[in-house]
Design a protein that fits this description.
The chain has 64 residues and is α+β, with helices and mostly antiparallel strands. It is 44% helix and 19% strand. The protein has a two-stranded parallel sheet with strand order 1-2. Homotetramer.
Length: 64
């Protein structure tokens, strides 16, 4: 929703997603969590490609 609003108003912006180191390192008995965080990373990369031309930066942080 925020991206759509920024694009319509022609405003730059920044979106920060919260991922996890589990997105790149497997954890035993955490299949769903690791998969979900890997999806967040993929979403972040795709959004960055799509929203970059609109001056909207998209990044993620991976706290421990």
């Amino acid at each position: 929703e925020i991206a759509r609003d920024l694009i319509e108003r022609k405003l730059p912006g920044s979106i920060v997603n919260v991922s996890s180191q589990a997105s790149v390192a497997a954890l035993k008995d955490h299949t769903l969590y690791c998969s979900a965080k890997a999806a967040v990373d993929s979403l972040t990369r795709t959004m960055a490609l799509e929203l970059g031309p609109h001056q909207i930066r998209v990044n993620s942080v991976q706290p421990t």
